[in-house]
Amino acid sequence: MLDDRNNSMNKNQDNRNLSDVFKELQEIRYSQANQVNTSSNPKTTNKKNKPKAKVSFIETNNVSFDNKKGIKLSNLLIVFVVLVLVIIAIFPMNVFSVETGDTSDDSEKVVETASIPTDFEINRKALNMQKIISENSSFEKVKEQVSEEREIEYDIQTQQNPTLPRGEQVVLQEGVMGKENVSLVKTYENGEFIEEIILAKETIEEPTPQILDIGTSDFLADLNVHIGDTVYLSKNATLRKEPSEDSEEVADIKNYIDVTLLELPNEDWCKVSFDTIEGYLPTNVLTSPTKTPSIIERNRIQRILINVNIEMELNKSTGLTLKDYQKIFKDLPNDTNGIFEENAEVFYNMDKKYNVNGIFIASIAIHESAWGTSQIAQDKNNLFGYGSYDETPYDSSYDFSTFAEGIETVTKSLVKYYLNPAGTKIYDGETASAWYYNGPTLEGVNQRYASDPDWHTKVYSYMEMLYNRLS
Question: Which distant-in-sequence residues (6+ apart) come within 8 Å of 285 by Cβ?
Fold first, then answer.
């Protein structure tokens, strides 16, 4: 009978789970506690009738324990199970169980537990929690949602322009900022702005793009000029009707002469204006003050020289400077006595004071005095034979104290009687009498001033020689 109970008990134990074991252990503890309380209470315990203690046994897996020892072992088993569960929860990778035993005998199983490492690395940089809390105790982060009106950047649009120097920019249309409403969230830390998140935008006014012309002409960039500027010839050239070497000729233009740049159809040809005459010139014959710094001075002289001709008007200033006069009369080969070099400033003063061509006055003096070597010039400081008559040239000629006096006397006479129409305001509040006026040219003066009909051509030859000393 006992064997049947034991077999039955063993079979039941095979089918129990952990919660059933805990429940049975708890019932055993309660039973033991009641027995202790009953035996220790004198009122309820009768020593005479005290039954003799019976020894009961609990059989588990064929191992028998007495009551007291069974209870203590059960307590230890509970503690051990709890401890194992805690270790598994903390170190799941380091704890594992393996069931071993004889598979033929289900009653005996051994649980092996992996060892838990006991060596840990020491944290030598431990956090100071008190310090961290103290430092962040005043930390404040604030977010606010706002709506702002902001500017919208305008676009910049560019287009190439072959009539501008390469790299140069011209604003054709100014850019204008647009406007928009922006909804956003701003974040501040301790009152300092750190970031923003834009939620929505609404355009109020569209921006106006800026439009730029970008120059592409290497010719204009090389000369540092623009359309409408003055450029200069670096050599003699022919002005043509069209931008081609085969085109019709319009005019010949001398070196150093200035023209106005009108158009640039391509990098090889340009349209220019030369003294109201329009036509085309090759770009390779042109220069500028940037490229040729001396070109302006050369142009000034050339402009004077191109107007020198036998038909030129003599009742006008030459436009020459004192340095020009000094240059013209310096070291003249035929001025053996140095008379004209010494009086270069006198001729310049006549030019400016009486609005007359001073080179013309000097050329008359050279022709009439044979470069200052005539007897009248030597004895009377009279370079012009002024007052002479063909019958008695020496005796009838005027006598001057200096060459300068004689030069000024003759200049005033020419201005008053030969070069200006009657009534022309001349000097010292006077007007021209024009007694011998036949036009302000060499040929006009020749008619009443000299009996030699070729006088004007002879004088002009000297004028031309003196002017050419400028170039």
Answer: 233, 234, 235, 237
Q: What is the pTM of this model?
A: 0.60
SS3 309: coil
User: Minimal CA–CA distance to 426: which of 442, 443, 412?
Assistant: 412
Q: Is residue 131 assigned to a domain?
A: no
Output the CA–CA distances (angstroms, integers) from residue 341 to 326, 371, 421, in the order listed.
7, 11, 32
- For every residue of 375-444, DSSP letters joined together read HHHHHH--SS-TT--SSSHHHHS---SSHHHHHHHHHHHHHHHTSS-TT-B-STT-B---TT-S-SSHHH
Residue with tokens 């199970």: 81
Distance CA 248, CA 174 (A): 44
List C-alpha distances in Å: 320 to 258, 323, 356, 467, 470.
18, 8, 12, 10, 10
Answer yes or no: are the C-beta atoms of 251 and 237 closer than 8 Å.
Answer: no
- Per the structure, how many domains does the chain have? 4
- Which residues span the domain enclosing 36? 2-42+54-113
Tokens representing 184?
């956003």
Is residue 121, in this structure, part of any structural domain at all?
Answer: no
pLDDT at residue 396 tops 80: yes
Domain end, chosen from 257, 281, 302, is at: 302
Q: Give the CATH number, domain containing residue 185.
A: 2.20.230.10
| 55-64, 74-83, 263-272: least confident range | 55-64
The pLDDT tens digits of the residues spanning 323-350 come to 999 999 999 999 999 999 999 999 999 9
Mean pLDDT of 239-251: 96
Rounded-to-integer distance, Cα 460 and Cα 167, Å: 52
Residues 403 and 325 in one domain: yes
pLDDT band at 20 (very low <50, low <70, confident <90, very high): low
Residue 436 shares a structural domain with residue 315:
yes
Q: Please, which contacts does 8-14 make with residues 24 or more away whose CB atoms are closer than 8 Å?
A: 9/59, 10/59, 10/61, 10/62, 10/107, 13/60, 13/61, 14/106
Q: What is the mean pLDDT of the chain?
A: 82
**The residue type at 150:** R
Residues 329 and 463 in one domain: yes
Nearest Cα residue to 264 out of 306, 292, 223: 223
290 and 311 both lie in a single domain? no
Task: Decide: 147 and 182 in contact? Cβ < 8 Å.
Answer: yes
Structure tokens at 357: 């061509």
397 neighbors 358 (Cβ within 8 angstroms): no
Do 450 and 326 have their domain in common?
Answer: yes
The whole-angstrom separation of Cα 142 and Cα 298 is 77
Listed residues 213, 236, 267: the one ending a domain: 213
- Does residue 345 belong to any structural domain of this protein? yes
Residues near 446 by Cβ (< 8 Å), separated by ≥ 6? 452, 453, 455, 456
